[in-house]
Amino acid sequence: MSTLTFSVCNLLFIILLSILGIRTTKAELSSSQVDLANVQGDIIIGLQKRFEAFWFCTLKSDSLSIEGFRRSLKTDLLPLITTTQGVIDAQKIIDNYQRNQTEGKTKRLLPITHANLGFTFNGLKKLGMNAEEIPTGKNGVFSKGQKVDAVKNLGDPVDQATKKLKTWSDDFSDEVNSIDFVVLITAPDSHFLNKKLDQIGKIFDGYLQNSFLRQGNVRPGDQFGHEHFGFTDSISAPKIEGVNAQPEDKKAGVVEPGVILLGQPSSGGNSSATDPKQAWLKDGSFMAFRELQQLVPEFQNFCDESAKSVKHLNISGDLIGARIVGRWKSGAPLSLAPNEDNPELSEAQDFDYSDELKQERCPYAAHIRKANPRNGIQSGADLRKTVLPHLMIRNGIPYGPELTEEETDMMKTKENRGLLFVSYQSEIADGFQFVQKTWSNNPRFPAQTAANVTAGLDLLAGQTSDESPRTAQNIIPLGSAGNTDPNNTLTAFQPFIVPLGGEYFLMPSIKAINETLGL
């Protein structure tokens, strides 16, 4: 079975080859514990991607359509699915191509495309699986779906009278055409993306009741690798013990395989490892997908105006932004570069907040400290219980046009742009949901701080369902006195990230597609 699909043609596009590579991919990656040829490629190290499409589909319910879909799934789509080993093999080809380029000759892009696949709880039911075979997820989070979770746990804006989500699009709110599965497709440019979409669309022609697309692409020029707020993205992804972890990754978080993959060992336990009826889940992972609109000019204006409000400090809006995020736009962490940006530290991970328990450099409420507090919660805390079980691997991509001059001048968003957020974890309730609800949205996390203050919300990703103002402490840099001053707070009266929808998916293993889901 092929684990990597190449579009072979003589035409090679004149684009820098380096932009297709993945920062965390190592061609020599291997594992004796995890079968990398059985794990879908976006989960651990991420598919090579410059353009990406998420094709959300609703299956017809009649038995002939379901049977036809399952046969096509095994016969036609499975050979197109890229595994983790396939991503590694692709990177070897890319690296070899780069090494063999003639000096001074324009580098060109190899037309490599990938596909991955995920199912919702309803989708698995529609395939005819028995109830005891389908995972519900801890607290039923997978079986209930993200729409229910968004109202009850994620903090998405809710109409207080009707209890309905206010900002979700019709595509994700549709009660009739609930999503059954998603196909992820990545490519080096829009031409190859559309070509791959057409190929896969023909496979399922006649089996679908409804479908819709979300597409994203990396940002151009010197903004490659940055999300729309301008910050370098996906730097702090945890690594997996025995798979891709290196000694230098320890402070950022090295997790057991079972934190990300179902049926693999983890100190937190994993029911799929012991339940024979769900043994087919091994090497799969749950994906949380979110369409997140980013209000870029509003965020930049907030940072600039907040800096101006303390003129005597003579600070920039960029410093306020860095303190909200926890990193400078280059990626340099505030913990290592507290006063000014240092691009040489753009990928630095050698920090864990253990030497700044009183938030001497990075605020408790900073986005990256909320999302991964590392060793900075309490002195002596057991990370294997308090932090590591909740880490997730993120492999999203920006979407939408670049900021226009009109938007900058008006300080008002007109175009829809943002992030197609993707995270992988073995339990949504322990991963994405926990981080959003218990850390980002929780003003009292971390609790019992050494600085004896209430941290406040993550001003970037934190959500309040009633759209009330969000306050964070110590965003304004007032020195050691400000770190412990409960009145040193900054309040945002509007969100800067607006959730437009999302869903939860099971990303099954290759073996599961071949032996359980396909016919």
Protein model, in words:
The protein is an alpha+beta fold and 519 residues long. It has 2 domains: 5-24 and 35-140 and 165-258 and 509-517, Alpha-Beta Plaits (2-Layer Sandwich), CATH 3.30.70; 293-501, no CATH class. It has 17 helices and 14 strands. A 5-stranded antiparallel β-sheet has the order 1-3-4-2-5. Strands 8, 9, 10, 11 and 14 form a 5-stranded antiparallel β-sheet that branches. Strands 6-7 form a two-stranded parallel sheet. The longest helix is centred in the first third of the chain and has 16 residues, at 84-99. The chain starts with a strand and ends with a helix. 50% of the residues are buried. Residues 1-26 have low confidence and may be disordered.
Topology:
Elements: E1 5-6, H1 41-44, E2 51-59, H2 63-77, H3 84-99, E3 112-119, H4 121-126, H5 141-144, H6 146-154, H7 170-173, E4 181-187, H8 190-203, E5 208-217, E6 239-240, E7 254-255, H9 257-260, E8 285-294, H10 296-308, H11 317-325, H12 367-371, H13 383-386, E9 393-394, E10 397-399, H14 405-410, E11 418-425, H15 432-440, E12 470-473, H16 479-483, E13 489-492, E14 497-507, H17 510-517
Helix pairs in contact: 10-11
Largest sheet: 5 strands, antiparallel
- Number of beta-strand segments: 14
Proper CATH architecture of the largest domain = 2-Layer Sandwich
CATH level-1 class of the largest domain: Alpha Beta
